[in-house]
Amino acid sequence: MTLGPLIIEQVSKNFEGLQALTHIDLHIEPGERRVVIGPNGAGKTTLFNIISGLIPPSSGRVFIFGKDVTKWPPHKRASLGLGRTFQITNLFSNLTVHENLLLSLKAVDTNRQFPLTPLASYKHLCSRAEDLLNQSGLWEKRNVTVRNLSYGEQRLVEVVMALAQNPKLLLLDEFTSGLSSTEIATVISVLKSLSREITLLLIEHDMDVAFEVGEFFTVLHMGKVFAEGSLDQIKSNNKVQEIYLGECQ
């Protein structure tokens, strides 16, 4: 078994008679920018939930960095360097943007301090938070309570929090959903600036975004891998155009 970021072997998922995924095989290379596309109900989020450990597969195996994590809980997979965002934001709505980001940074901080120490006293974390807030264009919003942000701004905060975890394998599920064109451009810029030490696996419905960020594509249709290939291969695949892309060129 190679030590690639992610290998999925013959993964299937059945929900009480509903076959959501059937014999999925994926092999993600280090530093790859892979985008999973497909129509609604194709099984994309189910696949992400299996990779991150939120639900078990009915059959098949999942390997992260060479380790069989098929039966591992989410937190143990995260310890290997797996990060993820969700279709629905998962933030501390009563805390500020800055406080949310500090909590995310503290979760992976190796410096031991007294647990009741105020977050603001962690100077090294505050410096890193400032860098991330400036990079993402959120600095002006740093003291705003998350519940008072627009939905698009909340999505952006979640992406930045995921990056704060220093993941080695990052799963982004519909990460531009609800974002303005300016926010989308900011997130794309941030993702493009990431080191190749971080492998990206994305679900994206916006084909302009998918084609801007992705280098290799997996098309799911009715719970199966329908096609795989580079940008040019996917864009020129008439069957993919027919089932999903429609008039997108």
Shape: globular
Distance between the amino and carboxyl termini = 38 Å
Low-pLDDT runs of 5+ residues are none
Share of helix, binned: 25-40%
Helix count from the secondary structure assignment: 9
Structural class: alpha/beta
Strand-and-helix sequence, N→C?
Answer: EEEHEEHEHHHEHEHEEHH
- Beta-strand content: 15-25%
Rg over CA atoms, rounded to whole Å, is 19 Å
Strand neighbour order, sheet with most strands: 6-7-8-3-9-10
User: Using DSSP, what is the number of strands?
Assistant: 10
Q: What multimeric state do the chains show? A: single chain
Largest sheet: 6 strands, mixed
If you average the pLDDT, what whole number results?
Answer: 87
Describe this structure in words.
- This protein is an alpha/beta fold and 249 residues long.
- The chain has nine helices and ten strands.
- The strands form two sheets. The protein has a six-stranded mixed beta sheet, with helices on both faces. A four-stranded antiparallel beta sheet has the order 2-1-4-5, with helices on one face.
- A hairpin with a 2-residue loop joins strand 4 and strand 5 (67-68).
- Helix 3 packs across helix 4 (123-136) and helix 3 (97-107) packs parallel to helix 5 (151-164).
- The radius of gyration is 19 Å and the shape is globular.
- The N and C termini lie far apart (38 Å).
- The model has no long low-confidence stretch (mean pLDDT 87).
Essential attributes:
249 residues; alpha/beta; four-stranded antiparallel β-sheet; 10 strands
